[in-house]
Specification:
The chain is of the alpha/beta class. It has one domain: Class I glutamine amidotransferase (GATase) domain (Rossmann fold), CATH 3.40.50. 39% of the residues lie in helices and 20% in strands. The chain has six helices and six strands; from the N terminus they run E-H-E-E-H-E-H-H-E-H-E-H. A six-stranded parallel sheet has the order 3-2-1-4-5-6, sandwiched between helices. Helix 5 links the parallel strand 5 (103-107) and strand 6 (124-128). The longest helix has 25 residues, at 134-158. The two termini are 15 Å apart.
Length: 161
């Protein structure tokens, strides 16, 4: 039996956008979704505006759970995304996490990731462009995932054994 895709991951590295990360973590968790902030690269946890976020897990633990991803958020701009290229574990995580109908949320400025990582090709890509639209986008995605998971659970429960 295949593993269920029931995890949301927000990648986190130095100079990433802490406001976007916090909004997605909050909205996804409020919707009852299993959500983890994953240290993707480096040792610093300080965001672009100086706020420090403490990740729930490192990239190695994230890689072990990547096949359960339903959503991956990469809250950064093009300058910050460069550090993800340094660590091959990040590309491996993305390759597994984005293997099937997964939602990838990424800043419009960091859209070069789409051409950088071959893994991204199978994901449903959503780009955000400004802080004002992020809370609404995060709520919409959280609702979409939660509804989908509810329907899947309901369908499994109604099947005759």
């Amino acid at each position: 039996m295949p593993k269920s895709r029931d995890r949301c991951f927000i990648l986190w590295a130095d100079r990433f956008d802490e406001a976007v990360a916090a909004i997605f973590v909050t909205e996804l968790r409020k919707a009852g979704l299993r959500t983890s902030l994953v240290r993707a690269a480096g040792q610093s946890d300080t965001g672009a505006n100086g706020l420090t976020l403490v990740p729930d897990m490192g990239i190695d633990e994230g890689r072990a759970l990547a096949d359960r991803a339903t959503c991956v958020v990469i809250p950064c701009n093009s300058a910050a995304i460069q550090q993800l290229r340094i660590d091959p574990r990040v590309d491996e995580f993305l390759g597994v996490a984005l293997a099937t109908d997964v939602i990838l949320v990424i800043g419009e400025e960091a859209s070069e990731l789409v051409s950088w990582s071959e893994a991204v090709g199978s994901a449903s890509q959503t780009f955000y462009s400004d802080q004002q639209s992020v809370p609404r986008l995060a709520r919409r995605i959280a609702h979409q995932i939660a509804s989908s998971q509810f329907r899947a659970r309901r369908s499994r429960q109604s099947r005759p054994m």
